[in-house]
Write a structure and sequence with these properties.
alpha/beta, 24% strand, Metallo-beta-lactamase, Chain A, seven-stranded mixed sheet, 23 strands, six-stranded mixed sheet, 12 helices, 2 domains, Rossmann fold
Length: 383
């Protein structure tokens, strides 16, 4: 697949993987992207997961007609992108490895091999001339590892963005970009909003026609504009849209019924509402939806003097990713000593610019008339 006349895709699709990074369900598989820039000197952009080394090396061989590449640029050392580097180095012993100083250290950690004698260490603002193409290196620390470089090709106006702008899903599966890109970003990069904003500022000074990420499709045209707009919102922790996510944990159905009643009241007030049962929803999707919407309702039973385990995990995933700039409503249920609202409030204390809406809905078993009034007031406060 040609990205431009002189940039060729040589990546692979993985349909064997069920959990990315050991936790994110990927029913549509994953893509491990790699590219070859064909010029007076040739450069391979990144490696792929070790399980696909042979396929990847065959792609490179076919693209270059058996010629050895002059360079391989390693932007990111996570094993799904560096895993085939040793096989590459053995096949192409004369090829120079271009990477950051931190990546070179990590190579010894992962591979117990010293590549320093055949490496070119680069940093922010360094360049590498290939002929018509000159590569400009852009530092992107903690997006989402500390060693990360991005690379800008000034000839074709392509930004090779490492893991930035990636998404879940193999490239041979057609699906919209936004939903799985959101789940990918919030889950993997969401903690590092400030660092992403710094990279976006650098990118704004570049004339970018295409973005080539290490996961997901090449972004160009309307899709590129959509991606830049989404990243601007996600990195600044700005809600994508007005609306309410009602996330609940229920054992015997009473808390579920209460959450659904509140959702109905919100809908009657014209709100866009999404309701999720945390025990039956993919956690990463629930977290992504919480970042998508401007408001959130947490509805949990009291369980062993705490919140229900699925609710605890959900809130911990939010706070780990710097959840902020939202309004949150609370609903608790406990047959004799409801404490969930107090505990959830405590768990959210580290979140910046978070407003806890009043009143708290406190149920003891099934919803009664007093709870109905509380829900009506909370729905009004969230509208």
């Amino acid at each position: 697949m040609k990205v431009t006349e002189e940039i060729v895709y040589v990546g692979v699709n993985d349909h064997e993987l069920d959990l990315f990074e050991g936790q994110y369900a990927v029913p549509a598989g994953m893509a491990y992207n790699s590219y070859v820039i064909c010029d007076e000197k040739t450069a391979v952009m990144d490696s792929v997961d070790t399980h696909f080394a042979e396929e990847w090396l065959n792609h490179i061989d076919q693209t270059l007609g058996g010629k050895a590449p002059d360079y391989i640029v390693i932007q990111h050392m996570e094993p799904d992108h560096s895993g085939s580097l040793v096989a590459f180095a053995k096949k192409y012993p004369e090829t120079t490895i271009v990477t950051s100083a931190k990546s070179l250290v990590m190579m010894q950690q992962f591979f117990v091999e010293d590549f320093s004698g055949r490496s070119l260490v680069v940093k922010e603002k360094d360049t590498l001339a290939l002929g018509r193409h000159t590569l400009h290196f852009v530092g992107a620390p903690m997006v989402h590892w500390p060693e990360v470089l991005m690379t800008y090709d000034d000839a074709d106006k392509v930004l090779f963005s490492a893991d930035g702008f990636g998404k879940f899903g193999a490239l041979d599966v057609e699906e919209p970009w936004l939903s799985e890109a959101r789940r990918y970003y919030i889950g993997i990069v969401g903690k590092y909003g400030a660092q992403v904003q710094a990279v976006l500022k650098k990118a704004s000074a570049l004339e970018i026609a295409k973005i080539c990420s290490l996961h997901g499709p090449v972004l160009e045209g309307d899709l590129l504009a959509e991606a830049l707009q989404a990243y601007s919102a996600w990195a600044s922790y700005t809600p994508e849209q007005e609306g309410v996510l009602v996330a609940y944990s229920s054992v015997y159905g009473n808390t579920k019924a209460a959450a659904e009643q509140l959702a109905k009241k919100l809908q009657e007030k014209g709100q866009d509402v999404c309701v999720m049962d945390l025990a039956r929803t993919d956690l990463s999707e629930a977290v992504a939806q919480a970042f998508r919407y401007s408001r959130l309702v947490l509805a949990s039973i009291t369980y062993n003097g705490d919140v229900f385990p699925h609710m605890r995990a959900f809130i911990e995933h939010l706070t780990e990713r710097n959840y902020q700039n939202r309004t949150v409503g609370l609903m608790e249920n406990g047959s004799w000593a409801p404490t969930a609202a107090r505990i959830m409030t405590k768990m959210l204390e580290s979140c910046k610019n978070l407003t806890i809406a009043e009143p708290v809905v406190s149920v003891k078993g099934a919803v009664n008339a007093a709870n109905e009034a509380q829900m009506e007031a909370l729905a009004e406060a969230l509208s």
